[in-house]
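new request in #modeling-help
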Amino acid sequence: MERVAVLSGNHAVAHAVKLCRPHVIAAYPITPQTQIVEKLAEFVERGELKAKYIRVESEHSAMAAIIGASAAGARVFTATSSQGLLYMHEAIWSAAGARLPIVMAVVTRAIFPPWNIWTDHSDILAQRDTGWIIAMAESNQEVFDMIIQAYRIAEDERVLLPVMIGLDAFSLSHTAAPVSLLDQDKVDKFLPPRRAFSFLLDIENPITMGNVAFPDHYMEFRYLIQKAMERAKQVIREVEEEFYEISSRKYGGLVEEYRCNDADVILVLMGAWSGDAKECADKLREEGLRVGVLRIRFIRPLPIEEIKRVSLGRKAVIVVDRDISFGGTGILFTEVSSILQQNSVTVRGFIAGLGGRDVTAKDFAQMVKQVYTDLEVGERRSRVEWYGVKEVI
Amino acid sequence: MTITIKSLSREEYLLPGNASCPGCPASLGLRLLGKALGKNMILVVPASCTSIIQGPYPKTSIKLPLINVIFASSAATASGIAAALEILGKKGVHVVCWSGDGGTVDIGLQALSGAAERGDNILYICYDNEAYMNTGIQRSGSTPYGAWTTTTVLGKRRHKKNLPMMMVVHDVPYVATASIGYPLDFIEKIRKAARYKGFKYIHLLAPCPVGWRFPPSKTIEIGRLAVLTGMWPLYEVERGKFRLTGVSRSLLDKSKRSPIVEYIKIQGRFSHISEEEIRILEEYVDKLWEDIRKIIS
């Protein structure tokens, strides 16, 4: 019988990583990721995890170190958040460009200035175009499950791309919840030692990696990442099915659909507050409003088919962003709108909860009701507004 | 123990037809590195002239496993490779950073210092051509006082950062300076460094004909003059023990050092240097040696 432990999101990450038997971990602490790297250091020092742990002097070096280790054949891990993720940004591109199956946990946190350590999705979404597979979890259990699956996805020879798994600051990272663990032998069977290599630094077979590619060649490297991303969609689904065999848990692939079948209005969002959105859907259904939730699990590769399939024929799709592309709109809103632009679906956007401002089921209900009211008076235009922002000018 | 040119392997790890400029000290240094350690090494190369010397994809001029990395990351990447080799049980492979002065004394300094402090098992070689040569001769923290670069058109107003000494205070098992003018001394130091486990650092002075404005045939001569004038002392610090090497052993006595104008006058980058600036450089050299005297005594 598998153990159920009460774990914070951060410790759920650390336990999952330990089960994946990484060879090299390199990390730099940042609130609210710290407990992940502390726990892993403890596992290594106590001999519970046989790994080399490099206590680097910065996030830029954390990513650089695991790039080197991964290129030399190791399974690797790091974790960061917010400023650390931004500081790492250059190296993040490097990891994907080198097609290295790196796994990283990102505790999503607001960006300075002003200082703010609470959740916000701007940090992880600023990595959107880097070539990483990017996922967001809703619960500590899902974080645990996603980390283990992430290595399978990243190391699949059809993919060979790095994967980052996001979890919201504090609402997941520091909130304890029951997590069903998995036995080591089951994980070992699910995740055998790394076999596929994009390339390997090996003295018996010397190659030069990353040298200059003229315009004649560069574009194809980029095209191959795009093709790998497209193949990753199927791999993500397959890996989840296999994971179901050992865990009896699955979430729905690139998205999770919650009460969407007969819904008139769909709430689209990602991360921990999806739970509040589901609670909102349940409550509004008691009032006779047919609301569903489409939770984006993977923002890259973008679940184009799923978003289209779930959205078409609805009265409205409401995208709630915990991020803002200044001068543009919410980033999820942009993504969803780009998919639905040729279909006559009303797409409404709300920017909410930045810097950890609390957003509850009641707030989601208010957004939904506002859209319903607009629809009743024939207002069907797509637009984005800020939710709950105070009068500042 | 003395190494001779004849005793070196004929095997080349930097192939002919590579993309280096005539008289390039970096390509010569790479050849010597190959002769020093043979095939048992993995090279880490940040953005630098060596990014170009390799030649473009799908070809390469370097017959060693090599990873090109982002500018500030060479030491950290090497730390990761060394950690992976250790835990995967791959023994006897040297992880060597081959970085320019920009990637070492400036943008790469944080990662370098971190790796040295941790004592990661790598050999870091800085080939110092005293400016950002790959981008077209901009000043670096390693450019000497008075030198013209495209961003110090009237001559740099600050002295060169003394990076080897910075590495010495990191308390690592081996730190050395070398000059491309003395290839056997360089090879000996590489081999000595490679015998130590932990962090090793070699700073190779690499006179660049393009950036220093001298004919390509004079690379070795200028590399020697740098040492003979005392501008670039050759030494090694082995387990904390300082020792002058090669011709530098006799240069503590100022009268044995050639006048620095012999070094300066054949380089176009110093063509507009004034008497006053030469005096400032002379004082710099005197202080360099005074500091060495204090270390020795």
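bot summary: The first strand of chain B starts at residue 41 and ends at 46.
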